[in-house]
Amino acid sequence: MIRLSVRDMAQYIVSDEAARLHLLRERKYNGLDGGARARFYSESRTSIAAYHRGALSRDAVEAKILTMRYEAKYSNPLPRAELLSNADVLERYMYYQGHRDLHLAPPPAADLVRGDVEIRVRPSLFAIEEDSARRLIFLELREKPHPAAMRVIAELAFEAFRPVLHYLPPQAVQVIDVRRGMVTELQQAGTAIGRELTAACKAISAVWPQLAPLKGSPAVARALERQMSIAWGAKP
């Protein structure tokens, strides 16, 4: 079984052929350690959840941000990067999303399977907003904005969850660019995403066995945009 995340599949769909092959090679031979990623952002992840549950006030979150930045001044490079990155995520999240009244529940999980390709769909937050509206929220950390990829993430998530969560409206799915506060919210279900997903999975299945690791440095480096999602479900 070929296993990809919903973010991998969204990036694949919106990329050109060379970038698609690069992404698949990276996932086949240099897959990111989800546990390490979760540990890196564990402080911001747990603080955001605690804030929405009422265990941390806004003042307490802001004090935590200041403390992390102070500790970073006296830390070695790796702990410094972790402290500063978590402080940045918390500050941006509180600035753009801190006003929202979200009542959290354990996030559900769903998979999209086409042939021998499995796409894991794991929201960062599952919440009730304004006492009635369900929200499946995907928190994205990107160096550059990518509205097309965020839109595809939302469409794939809705495709995965509408058989699981009955009467789920498209507007329930939100993909948030944490650093910029951009919120991608579906207004209606994508009509072509099912066909695009099937075609993409068929192409991936065909090329996957032929993918070989690159030897040495490629003549032309074509690095994908570095991106990260806040891995909510994994234990730090």
Could you explain how this protein is built, in words?
- This protein is α+β, with helices and mostly antiparallel strands and 236 residues long.
- Helices cover 45% and strands 19% of the residues.
- The strands form 2 sheets. Strands 2, 5, 6, 7, 8 and 9 form a 6-stranded mixed β-sheet that branches. The chain has a 3-stranded mixed β-sheet with strand order 1-4-3.
- Strand 5 (125-129) and strand 6 form a beta hairpin.
- Helix 1 packs antiparallel against helix 2 and helix 1 (6-14) packs across helix 7 (147-161).
- The radius of gyration is 19 Å and the shape is globular.
- The two termini are 26 Å apart.
- 29% of the residues are buried.
What class do helices, strands and sheet pairing give? alpha+beta
Approximately how much helix is present in the residues?
Answer: 40-55%
Shape: globular
- Describe the sheet with the most strands: 6 strands, mixed
The total count of helices amounts to 8
Radius of gyration: 19 Å
Distance between the termini: 26 Å
Low-confidence stretches: 217-227, 231-236
Number of strands: 9
Compressed to H and E, one letter per element, the order equals EHHHHHHEEEEEHEEHE
pLDDT averaged residue by residue? 87
Q: Tell me the fraction of residues in β-strands, as a range.
A: 15-25%
